[in-house]
Amino acid sequence: MANTELEKLKKEIETLRDEINTYIEYPEIFKEELVESSSRIDILINKYIDLSK
Q: One MF term in GO for this entry (predicted)?
């Protein structure tokens, strides 16, 4: 089960990374989206690290 959850988190992280890469092209327009996505990716990475232990 942990492996399934890790894979799910990994996919979510990748999706957020893609979003951030899109937003970063126009940071002044997507400032709020960048902040929100960055916060979400931090949370997911921490969950991933916790589950990996």
A: protein dimerization activity
The answer to whether the pTM exceeds 0.70 is yes
Question: For residues 5 and 20, what is the distance between their CA atoms, to the nearest angstrom?
Answer: 22
The number of residues in the chain equals: 53
CA distance 21 to 51: 26
pLDDT in tens, 1-32: 678 999 999 999 999 999 999 999 999 999 99
Three-state DSSP string of 1-26: CHHHHHHHHHHHHHHHHHHHHHHCCC
Domain residue extents for the chain: 1-52
3-state secondary structure of 33: helix
